[in-house]
Amino acid sequence: MKFLLLFFIFMVLLWQWRHAREQKVKRSERNNAPAPGTIEMVRCAQCGVHLPATDALKGTNGLYCSALHRQAREP
Ligand SMILES: [Zn+2]
Asked: How many angstroms separate the CA atoms of 44 and 62, rounded?
């Protein structure tokens, strides 16, 4: 009977430990995910203006706001 009680206590503690660990993982996943409706912003390597990453032009030295700035930085 004594061992059964110890086993029961052990199982309850194990369940609580696993539950707390799952909650911690869920909380960290929620904090790392971007909020819905947010847009990733990037900085132009030439003028420093911030613009949406989808509108940025890729160059060999970074991202640019326009073809003119890309040309000015990367002739
Ligand atoms: Zn620019």
From this structure: 8
Residue 19 Cα to ligand 1 middle (Å):
50
CB 49 within 8 A of CB 62: no
Cα of 38 from ligand 1 centre, angstroms: 22
35 neighbors 43 (Cβ within 8 angstroms): no
Long-range contacts: 38-44, Cβ < 8 Å, 24+?
A: 44/69
Ligand 1 center–CA 2 separation, angstroms: 75
Indicate the SS3 state at residue 43. strand
Mean of the per-residue pLDDT values of the chain: 91
Q: Pick the residue with more confidence: 72 or 30? A: 72
Whether residue 35 has pLDDT greater than 80: no
pLDDT at 63 over 80: yes
